[in-house]
Amino acid sequence: MVLGRKEVPSLVKDEKLIEKRRGEMVKAAVNLFKENGFHRTTTREIAKASGFSIGTLYEYIRSKEDILYLVCDSIYEGVKEKLHEQISLAEGSIEHVKKAIAVYFNVVDEMQDEVLVMYQEAKSLSREALPYVLKKELEMTAIFEDLLHRTVAQGELELNEEEVKLLAHNILVHGQMWTFRRWSLRKEYTLEEYTQMQINLLLYGVLNRSLTGKTS
Amino acid sequence: MVLGRKEVPSLVKDEKLIEKRRGEMVKAAVNLFKENGFHRTTTREIAKASGFSIGTLYEYIRSKEDILYLVCDSIYEGVKEKLHEQISLAEGSIEHVKKAIAVYFNVVDEMQDEVLVMYQEAKSLSREALPYVLKKELEMTAIFEDLLHRTVAQGELELNEEEVKLLAHNILVHGQMWTFRRWSLRKEYTLEEYTQMQINLLLYGVLNRSLTGKTS
Amino acid sequence: MVLGRKEVPSLVKDEKLIEKRRGEMVKAAVNLFKENGFHRTTTREIAKASGFSIGTLYEYIRSKEDILYLVCDSIYEGVKEKLHEQISLAEGSIEHVKKAIAVYFNVVDEMQDEVLVMYQEAKSLSREALPYVLKKELEMTAIFEDLLHRTVAQGELELNEEEVKLLAHNILVHGQMWTFRRWSLRKEYTLEEYTQMQINLLLYGVLNRSLTGKTS
Amino acid sequence: MVLGRKEVPSLVKDEKLIEKRRGEMVKAAVNLFKENGFHRTTTREIAKASGFSIGTLYEYIRSKEDILYLVCDSIYEGVKEKLHEQISLAEGSIEHVKKAIAVYFNVVDEMQDEVLVMYQEAKSLSREALPYVLKKELEMTAIFEDLLHRTVAQGELELNEEEVKLLAHNILVHGQMWTFRRWSLRKEYTLEEYTQMQINLLLYGVLNRSLTGKTS
DNA sequence: GATGAATGAGTGTTCATTCAT
DNA sequence: TATGAATGAACACTCATTCAT
Predict the structure, then answer these.
(1) Chain A residues whose C-beta sits inside 8 Å of any chain B C-beta
(2) Which CATH architecture has domain D64-210?
(3) Which pLDDT belongs to residue C208?
(4) Tell me: the pLDDT tens digits for C96-120?
(5) Which of A107, A150, B147, D173 is deepest in the core (most CB within 10 A)?
(6) For the segment C144-161, what is each residue's pLDDT rounded down to a tens digit?
(7) Are C178 and C191 in contact, with CB atoms under 8 Å apart?
(8) Does domain C70-212 have CATH number 1.10.357.10?
(9) In angstroms, how far is E21 C1' from D45 CA?
(10) How far apart are CA A175 and CA A168, in angstroms?
């Protein structure tokens, strides 16, 4: 099964308008979701906050869940876009990996409310929509996998396939941690400290591996 | 502010009975929450699944949220209990840390549904109840902090205070990862593989630090 | 497929209470349906008219359609009960058939609003519920079929099987006509006149058939 | 009160265009009504099925009810037209009456969906529009009244004024029966059988009356 | 202490109709 | 004339909670 982007049908025909209106709706929804969560936010609140009538809202989406999907989709697109703006994905070096992690953590920090929302509410998506969002998460992971692969290929890291995958997962999760454990982490570290320390913890072991030999 | 365990009032006087009944309610609730989530589960369903009338349910709790709090509390207690059964918290050595991580990951795996529920639904707790649950999470973190501290004190690890804290957080989160990313991780690794690899990634860097000098 | 009476589930356990409450709800619903039709009547109106809150209404039914089904069911039961009270179904004679038709027309006249409602709204029942109501209609038809059969057996009428069936249908429909064409019929005839004339038109031909020979 | 045809106002001036467009709308509406009923059919669906925008639909009608009126009107016109095509209304004989009934039943059979729609949905017309439709029904009845009158005048039937009226009603209703009881009748009879048997039952009594004397 | 019938505010969603373009 | 985006009143239905028995 190859998943593309899930199409959300609309009663409105003008594609440009759909894009525009949905953007406004998603923006309002994110703010409400981060305040009260998906379930505690009503469609009426979303309509009002985005400046439309409830009827108009439903011209652009079919159900409340569609909004959640659009929110998740939009957040992933936002993160990926910012990532691509700031890091070249063609290179492969330790320095580049460090840079990428730092950039990613920065993006997560900038969009912390959005990331947190998506992180906590995505589970409310139906069994139909969830795979599309998980796919996005895998795409994000793949960005770091590729980067690590290239760095391994350059001889700057010594990792097998499975280790690359897991390290990529860890990087992603350490970024998300910054949002979902912020109640604790923010008290202890600035973003810069957090970033520096996590880079060390994430990479220090694998970096020096060649010096000290493999573990089982 | 020092938080103790939050007291949930009951209309029933008999403490023993409260304990017993609540245990049954929580058990039923966990099963329902892990199937449908907190918001999609009704109090009627919880009452029915635990074998009580809706009226009786409300003799033992004040609100639906009380159940969520009791569920979270119960899950933490379960995890901590299992942890204490299997690891001595007085020692301090690399081997002990590895053992503790493995035990913790095993507990998380055994209780993966429960951990996932708590992880995803705790955010629905009111501003009043949330701190009590976050406190539990900090207590969990503290278990690993202490272990790391002792190991540092033994001279087997070289970490400053802040690194200990962050490493403890990472251990916790890597355990939770096993539940909230299981849609991906389970495809790639068995629990044993996951545990071994994460131990390596978590500890390898800090382990060999003395051999190679500090990073910035 | 043998259809019994369709069971409508209720959240309330007390069977007696269900019977009582549903009776009140059906009564209110009939009045509203005959005024505004099924689709133009809201569940809140039904709740209010029967003296319950909307929540209570839904303790006794699952959906608005359930009310329509209960209404139809109740009307059939009412008609059949009144019929059985007044005519013996064991006999078989021309006089008895005339009597039965007159009684049936009287019952229809007494319950004209109800009959009209059922007649016009039954089509709004779902494909699941409709067969149960059609079955009731066939049972009604069967009452007259049996009566005619017995009369034929007595030698007082000369009709083949198919003619008995059709005549029974015609009797039923002529009764219903009195409701759904009342805007016209009531201007022309009293119930007594209508009954007398229809009996003549329905039976005169078949009555005298023996005197005049068969038609093709 | 003399009712003519009810005028449905339109924002469009061109009468020819109104006729044309409304024809297309009515055609689409009939198909939708017979599938889902009037209340379950939306104006959007009607607009789409007739190939217009919702805006254009409302250029030709004022309200959804106008469509229902036009549909009813159109069905009556259709039935009447087909009737006039096939039977001469100037004659008066038993044979002609039989022929007319057969033709009418045939027309009803051909347009059974339409007849059923009109029959079941006309009640949803407002108190303002209903009389216009009932008038059409009376006109239909009048066709058979006239036919019977002429046959009585020819001495082929012996019926008083009131009996003529009621018999005409019965003929109409027996035609409609073929649609609204088709779930049962179609299983028992072909159209030809049904027609033949109903003609017998309708006319046999009155036919032979002269031979046998009056009933009370 | 236990029960379950009663409540009604609140929810997602629909749809006939309007009106600016 | 034709369009279709916008509207919001209205609807069926849910569910946490209460309280009389």
Answers:
(1) 37, 39, 120, 123-124, 134, 137-138, 141, 162-163, 165-167, 169-170, 173-174, 177, 181, 183-185, 188-189, 193-194, 196-198, 200-209, 211-212, 215-216
(2) Orthogonal Bundle (1.10)
(3) 56
(4) 999 999 999 999 999 999 999 998 9
(5) B147
(6) 999 999 999 998 888 899
(7) yes
(8) yes
(9) 24
(10) 11
